[in-house]
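Let us work through a complete example step by step.
Step 1: write down the sequence.
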Amino acid sequence: MERYRPVPLLWPPLNIGHRGAAGEAPENTFAAFELATRQGADGIELDVHLSADGVPVVIHDPRLRRTTSGSGWVRNHRVAQLKHLDAGSWFNRRYPSKAR
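Step 2: predict the structure and record it as tokens.
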């Protein structure tokens, strides 16, 4: 008995960089987006939250702690404050200058 039947594709699959090349560079950073592009990604999936002053900020979580040197909610910080956070040097030593 056949468990499933393959479905023919109507168009070629796309290679989408999830948060950029998040497994190899800090997620949702220019470094991750550039690397995904160099690796042949057809597109980039990214996440956006608004800062306290209404500016879109590329970050997955609504809170800063997991991926930046900050704490609290993205929405409670002005973009000028967020620009000073480190969002990548924790990942590895290859990206410290691109972490901000």
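Step 3: interpret the result. The first strand starts at residue 16 and ends at 18.
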